Amino acid sequence: MLGSADAERVADLMRETAAAELEPRFRTLSAEEIREKRPGDLVTVADEAAEQRLATGLAKILPGVPVVGEEAVAKDAGLLDLIARPGESCWIVDPLDGTKNFAEGRDRFAIIVALVRDTQAVAGWILNVPRRQVAMVVKGEGVTLDGVRVAQRKPRRPPNGFVGYNVLKEFKRQLQPEQRRRLGKVRPSSCSGAEYLEMLAGQSDFNLFRRAMPWDHAAGALMMTEAGGVAWRIDGSPYAASQPTASGVNAAIDPDVASEVRDVLDTVRMPLLAGLPKVQ
Questions:
Q1: Kindly report the CA angle at 115 between 113 and 116, in degrees rounded to 5?
Q2: How many CA atoms lie within 13 A of 77 on its CB side?
Q3: Which of 44, 97, 146, 228 is the right S-S partner for 110, CB 3.0 to 4.6 Å?
Q4: At the topology level of CATH, where does 161-273 sit?
């Protein structure tokens, strides 16, 4: 359904979208071009223009396959149901991952695209726009970062990672010093796409989120598993793009790291983090 030439066309479309819709607007937005979809959740004219360009281009690559875009879902939440249709396909699009960074002039933002078939991600692309860095993955064919195949690696010790805001807050409040020393630098997430690329590049080792939107994680989670790592839901089952957003995600390029993160966080006695499996 998706040939190698088509996979390159998606990456080219993302680069073209960044050049046409994001880069010209970076650090030039007026106050009127930024608004809140809900309290604390920003959207800009750049998000909307990029999503429209991506949707138009993806329809040419795979005609008839619907697009589930973050901004379209903000207007019609029922579009999320398209991801969970057995036997059917759809695109998932985050036209501007890291909108808050973009709106505030910080150069940490990305475009993320995933292709879902039969409720599971089968391909994914992440473009770190400021760095012009691209990762591509096709299920069963591995993952590449700037054209170089990525394989499982042994991480640094202690491992570094990114976590969601609510997890980090409880981490700081409850974690005992002896447990905290088992992990390295733990930072709050601000751009999932950039963070997944850093995991692929060996600059970071894991992530953990209580709430996982499909446009943030479908592509990156597939990249982790294709590189020999893992992507779990909070309850310990494999991550799936079609899962409820409250199911969360814990991903790492090395399964032992994901297990260690679980072991540390279990000591915090947080029910929302219970149930992550041990990897033997």
A1: 135
A2: 4
A3: 97
A4: D-Maltodextrin-Binding Protein; domain 2 (3.40.190)
